[in-house]
# Entry
Amino acid sequence: MTPEFVVEFAKEAILLTIYLSMPMLGLGLAVGLIVSVFQAVTQIQEMTLTFVPKILAVFLGLLFAAPWMLEKVTAFTVHVIENIPMYIR
# Structure
């Protein structure tokens, strides 16, 4: 294993992590922005109003994105396991 290989492998893993987390982070951001605008317009400053919709949005996003996420993680894992002999050299 060369240092270049280790850096490339870590880069692929980090990019996959970012790629998989972006839909949930985007949903949380969008719902948070909508709730913040709603709070600013109505002047309701309830703390649970900020967290509950975001949590529900992220859980719904996970529910719908879970098959896609599982496919991506499985493909990455299969790629890593299939290439173990090449990594050992």
Notes: The mean pLDDT is 92. The first helix runs from residue 3 to 42. The CA atoms of residues 8 and 36 lie 40 Å apart.
